[in-house]
Amino acid sequence: MTPFGTAPDGRPVERITLRNAALTVQLLTRGAVVQDLRLAGVDWPLTLGSADLAAYVGPLGYYGAVVGPVANRIAGASALIDGTRHDFPPNEGGNLLHGGRFGTQARVWDIASVGETSAVLRLALAAGDQGFPGARVIEAGFALEGATLVLRLSATSDAPTLMNLANHSYWNLDGSESIAGHRLTVAADRVLETVAGLPTGRVLPAAGAFDLRQGRVIDLSEGFDHNFCLADAPRGLTEVAELVGQSGVRLRLATTEPGLQVYDGVYIDSEGFAGLQGRPLRKHEAMALEAQRWPDAPNHPGFPSIRLDPGQTYRQETRLSFDRL
């Protein structure tokens, strides 16, 4: 571990290095961020990040982080739990995005354990924090298994609450300034219809640019910021997506989650902060593949539930496997 600066609340931020023969991964205790990821034999980082903590406090607030306690959006920043309305501080117009301004990505997590190839970070959230009921404990476990980064997320609560965590890493497998030319495959035959980023409630057949079952080369005309419906509930670990750069570097994503938010990075802007390659980050430089449950679920009874009750444990496992074809 090495110091990475001081968070706005005065707490020190640490950088943790996990390493084996295939992968080197840097983690930050602020936000449980995957700050850097390198594949042996490849001369560039495969994820977007920065060497400056101020970038994460500013425009890179979501980059590489575990976002939550509810990833994606809640319309109107409001939801019912057992008939009681809970209001959350909106941070995207009148809506809640990724748990709000002070979501899990903006907190310094405690180090529960750390070793050469694995680490567990822990975050305690008080009842009422950001409007969410329940005293909650969230854990993010990272482990290297060969050329695979395994992310295991879990959470408990002492009162009925909402929980939907996601890793928000951005991927560019070529070290280039644009994701264009990467080939994306997603094993989903349905996609959520959205208006202004919010689900309408309609689940549509994946068609045209959104039918990625056979894979297609990204040309940036698609406008991806959509939840691809993988299943109707969490399930056993299943390979669901593949991203291949023009360099031949490949990412395969397997997850237990029923949704995958695919976002083409149209609003990427590091506002002058340098990325890992020493230059500012720009529009469409990378793509986020966010394994999660479906967005705005509390306001759509037919969507997979994100409710977490006392005595239950929320669990997610997502595996990111890398190689070069």
TrEMBL record:
Instruction: Please name the GO terms that the record assigns under molecular function.
Output: aldose 1-epimerase activity; carbohydrate binding
Which keywords describe this protein according to UniProt?
A: Carbohydrate metabolism, Isomerase
Xref: InterPro entries: Aldose_1/G6P_1-epimerase (IPR008183), Gal_mutarotase_sf_dom (IPR011013), Galactose_mutarotase-like (IPR047215), GH-type_carb-bd (IPR014718)
Record keyword Isomerase present: yes
- Asked if the record carries the keyword Isomerase, the reply is yes
Pfam families, A to Z:
Aldose_epim
Record-linked PANTHER family: ALDOSE-1-EPIMERASE, GALACTOSE MUTAROTASE
As for family, the record states: Belongs to the aldose epimerase family.
Q: Report the protein name in the record.
A: Galactose mutarotase
